[in-house]
């Protein structure tokens, strides 16, 4: 992870490799960093972990030297604030359909006058009261990622990307393709056009475009489209793929 924060890396256009954390495991978070990934998404929307597992996973991510973003279950104000107070570097907000929803969601990530995040200094983010200046510093470091998962969100992508506090647009390919009536058909022309629209919207406002892909084989195509924040599968799918390959190698002998 080094001294450079995730927000700075997104803004300068770094290509960042990551994965989703489904297992709720601190060791999985740490292992992802050891493996050389740049970032992990601790998934509280679909993952099997819970808010109770979050702190341990954040500790694991730090030990592994990997940036940690938390996908909250909803855009409700307390969800993002709790994750940030525990030390998450950024928040991913799912199921945003328009600019008004996005504006309200990212407001929850920032303190006044830029937002409505609640203020407390005894938490981990403020080093348990020893770094109250972290309140003032948060605006420079907190990462806001808005998911684009519906045709309405694609249509509003430019307006969403223009918002202060939005650092990246992140396509949820499962939800988006399902909403477009093309579930799983990532080569469908209308889906490919939606991807190009999202990347163009992000580029126009100096923001990053991200996407989840099922495996590394899909990465070159997404890089060619202009995506830079890429998540490859999840801890669970990567483990299954590795175990399958190992089993196949043994059984083939």
TrEMBL record:
Keyword flag Lyase: yes
Under the GO molecular function aspect, what terms does this record hold? aldehyde-lyase activity; metal ion binding
Q: Which InterPro entries match?
A: Aldolase/citrate-lyase_domain, HpcH-HpaI_aldolase, Pyrv/PenolPyrv_kinase-like_dom, Pyrv_kinase-like_dom_sf
What PANTHER family would the database entry show? Answer: 2-KETO-3-DEOXY-L-RHAMNONATE ALDOLASE (PTHR30502), PHOSPHOENOLPYRUVATE CARBOXYLASE FAMILY PROTEIN (PTHR30502:SF0)
Q: Which key words are in the record? A: Lyase, Metal-binding
Q: Where is the HpcH/HpaI aldolase/citrate lyase domain?
A: 18-240
Superkingdom is: Bacteria
Q: What is this protein called?
A: 2,4-dihydroxyhept-2-ene-1,7-dioic acid aldolase
Family (UniProt): Belongs to the HpcH/HpaI aldolase family.
Q: Name one Pfam family in it.
A: HpcH_HpaI
Name a GO CC annotation attached to this entry.
cytoplasm
């Amino acid at each position: 992870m080094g001294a450079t924060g995730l927000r700075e890396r997104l803004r300068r256009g770094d290509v960042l490799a990551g994965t989703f954390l489904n297992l709720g495991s601190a060791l999985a978070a740490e292992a992802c960093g050891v493996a050389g990934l740049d970032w992990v998404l601790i998934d509280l929307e679909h993952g099997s972990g819970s808010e109770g597992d979050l702190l341990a996973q954040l500790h694991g991510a730090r030990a592994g030297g990997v940036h940690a973003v938390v996908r909250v279950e909803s855009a409700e104000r307390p969800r993002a604030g709790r994750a940030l107070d525990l030390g998450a570097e950024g928040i991913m907000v799912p199921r945003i359909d328009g600019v008004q929803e996005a504006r309200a969601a990212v407001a929850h990530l920032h303190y006044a006058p830029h937002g409505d995040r609640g203020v407390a200094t005894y938490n981990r983010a403020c080093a348990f009261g020893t770094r109250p200046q972290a309140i003032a510093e948060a605006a420079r470091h907190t990462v806001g990622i808005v998911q684009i998962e519906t045709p309405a969100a694609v249509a509003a992508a430019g307006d969403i990307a223009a918002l202060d506090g939005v650092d990246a647009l992140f396509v949820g390919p499962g939800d988006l393709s399902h909403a477009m009536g093309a579930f799983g058909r990532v080569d469908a022309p209308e889906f490919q056009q939606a991807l190009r629209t999202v990347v163009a919207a992000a580029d126009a406002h100096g923001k990053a475009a991200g996407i989840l892909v099922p495996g590394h084989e899909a990465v070159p195509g997404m890089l060619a489209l202009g995506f830079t924040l890429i998540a490859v599968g999840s801890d669970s799918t990567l483990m299954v793929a590795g175990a399958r390959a190992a089993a196949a190698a043994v059984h083939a002998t």
